[in-house]
Design a protein that fits this description.
eight-stranded mixed barrel, 50% helix, binds calcium ion, binds ligand C2E
Length: 329
Amino acid sequence: ESVAKISAKLLSELGRAFKIEMHALNISCSIGAAFYPNDGDTFEMLLQNADTALYQAKFNGRNVFQYFTSEMNVKAQERLYLENQMRLGLAEGQFSVEFQPQIHLGTLEVTGMEALLRWQHPVMGAVSPSVFIPVAEDSGLMIELGKFALTEACMAATRLYLPNKPITVSVNISIIQFQRGNIVALVKDILAITQFPPHLLELEITESLLASDPDKVVAVIQTLKQLGVRFAIDDFGIGYSSFNYLKRFNVDKIKIDQSFITDIVYSHEDQVIVNAIIQLAHSLEMECIAEGVETEAQKAMLKAMRCDQIQGFVCAKSMSSAAMQQYLS
Ligand code: C2E
Ligand code: CA
Ligand code: CA
């Protein structure tokens, strides 16, 4: 209790603006605390656990005080385990890429496919990308994993490519790859190695990327677009959508997030939102695709709204490239 009181006092003192010359400066502070002997009986152990608590405090928001708990330790251990296993798994070929078809609602033909990473671990079994992608992004492994996904997708898609029936391949690009990897060089290299036609490659980025460093992102997108590469905005509608960015970034496609599709048949609000997104896309001369379409009723409604394409279990789940070959024929 006394530690909590002291921490609160520290936070409030440090939370006040500091007047330095003419300037009022603000800093934020986060505190993590671990206790002897419950949380560790060596200096190293205590420091490590206080650090884990600090990490959690920062995660919870600025100006927060956080005690160490053993669950935190479990979480930190899990993260570390996953990270190490991922490194090993990449070297041992446990990762692969699957494809999910994208169907044109007018012609009902396959016009594209999304490449999705899969991890088959010898003990844990199939690990979901929503579990391992965030860990990869935190640990720096995302650069390597992203390179793997792009290479595999282009290599497999070169074989699936049919001359009279162009099929785009969409690859998810993490914000980390934009910030820390040389994405332009990577895409150029992979296109050169695989000989995959650039105009059939679509990169999926999220709205948060657009907001992160607009000038740099615009430059990168423009450079890649000059090669012929297309861009889609993934999970559209759940982040901070800036119409200004949308115009500036000159993307080709909007992917309407699954959360608006799930209840679309019953929810008037969702119908209004989806309709508005479709109109917006078309007014800006972009295509739009609805994600996570599971039923015929959802599909019919999207068709009536003039949505261009759909992707979801109603057409097919993701599959290996061999299965995709069969699906296409
Ligand atoms: P996402 O990009 O939004 O991918 C769509 C997710 O929805 C996929 O999950 C897909 O399997 C799932 N899905 C497709 N149709 C349906 C449907 O009708 N109903 C339902 N309930 N789900 C459907 P998945 O494969 O688990 O991927 C999860 C997320 O992991 C992806 O979300 C994406 O953000 C990320 N991810 C996957 N592969 C990569 C990658 O190569 N690079 C990066 N950076 N992220 C990836
Ligand atoms: Ca995606
Ligand atoms: Ca999505």
